[in-house]
UniProtKB/TrEMBL annotation:
The lineage of its organism: Bacteria, Deltaproteobacteria, Bradymonadales, Bradymonadaceae, Persicimonas. This is Polyprenyl synthetase family protein. Signal peptide: none annotated. One of its GO terms (molecular function) is prenyltransferase activity. Keywords: Magnesium, Metal-binding, Transferase. InterPro entries: Isoprenoid_synthase_dom_sf (IPR008949), Polyprenyl_synt (IPR000092), Polyprenyl_synt_CS (IPR033749).
Length: 343
């Protein structure tokens, strides 16, 4: 295990219980008396996850020499926001299982799932309000949360619009991901650096690096869905949902027209009409036409853009954090990368 992964495990062992306790307390204290939203939130949160976004602010605090426990409310807020998007995403994508449990909309119904996702957005701000800092700093952090939330929602909207584009461009895909995914990494890094009184240019560069790491994370997730185990019902769930991934965008713009037309037909079908044979053919076609290579090369490019900048030479702990994030993000597909390099 690398130094960075060991550090994340230490932060998880030391502070995750405190983060969970704060989430439970704020959800209970701030909900109207007898609200069923509390039960639904507890149900969703117990499905687990890596809690990476919860720990990132604490890792930033350590990198700047601050006490991590002071960033627990921000870590809790980032985790709540991330999970709010998951509740809505599961409904929009019609995903029925998350980490072995029924998703909220399956368990409680669609209208109540929408209500819970909405409520979790407000709990996010209430959690951030528990930060012990001057009021103007707390206001800046709350404003960051609101802006990044809008970016995430806009990215999700762009994803839906891309489904109606016959030949979406790589730039369209990146613009969507930089909202939908990168915002949820820019927030914990940028807001934590702000809390620690980092210089403005450092905060800006951190958010730029987070943007690249967000794209890296999303592309590895695209690859994971087809070439590894994503922990969902079966491989190729994103294809069944008609999602526009990095591999799909490359294939539609580089494969012969008849092959591109075939993929568009698969993406347009109802998810229960996409067969395992269709998924197997997609997997092979992405390899044959260089789409998997494109995705892996872009992952490596984004890693270098985020981690190899000279800007953080005077901040070795921050540079180490960024490299560690890339390592953690890529661990689930490391065997895919190794296999393709040997092919």
């Amino acid at each position: 295990m690398s130094e960075m992964m060991t550090n994340f495990e230490r932060l998880r062992d030391t502070y995750l219980g405190e983060i969970h306790a704060l989430i439970d307390r704020v959800v209970e204290d701030e909900a109207p008396e007898g609200s069923s939203l509390v039960e639904m939130c507890r149900y969703h949160m117990k499905t687990g996850g890596k809690r990476l976004r919860a720990l990132l602010p604490l890792a930033v605090a350590e990198a700047f020499g601050a006490e991590p426990t002071k960033l627990v409310p921000l870590g809790a807020a980032c985790e709540m926001l991330h999970n709010a998007t998951l509740v809505h995403d599961d409904l929009q994508d019609r995903d029925q299982i998350r980490r072995g449990e029924e998703t909220v909309w399956v368990r409680f119904g669609e209208p109540r799932a929408i209500n819970l996702g909405d409520a979790m957005l407000y709990w996010t701000l209430l959690l951030a309000g528990r930060l012990e800092c001057p009021a103007d700093k707390r206001q800046r952090i709350s404003s960051r949360i609101l802006r990044e939330t809008l970016r995430v929602v806009d990215g999700q909207e762009r994803e839906f619009l891309l489904k109606d584009v016959t030949s979406p461009s790589v730039d369209d895909y990146f613009r969507m991901v930089e909202g939908k995914t990168s915002g949820l990494f820019a927030l914990p890094l940028g807001a934590a650096a702000d809390f620690c009184d980092a210089p403005e240019d450092v905060i800006d560069e951190l958010e730029i690096a987070a943007g690249h790491l967000g794209v890296l994370f999303q592309i590895q997730d695209d690859v994971l869905d087809l070439y590894a185990d994503k922990g969902r019902e079966h491989r190729g769930t994103d294809i069944c949902e008609g999602k526009i991934s990095a591999l799909v965008v490359h294939f539609l713009t580089h494969a012969p027209e008849d092959e591109a037309a075939w993929l568009r037909d698969v993406l347009d079908r109802p998810r229960d009409e996409v067969s395992h044979d269709d998924i197997d053919r997609v997997i092979d076609a992405f390899r044959e036409h260089g789409s998997l290579d494109f995705a892996l090369n872009e992952i490596d490019r984004r890693r270098r853009l985020a981690c190899d900048t000279k800007f953080f030479a005077d901040y070795p702990a921050i540079e180490g954090l960024l490299r560690g994030m890339a390592e953690v993000f890529l661990k689930p597909i490391q065997h895919v990368i190794a296999a393709e390099q040997q092919a």
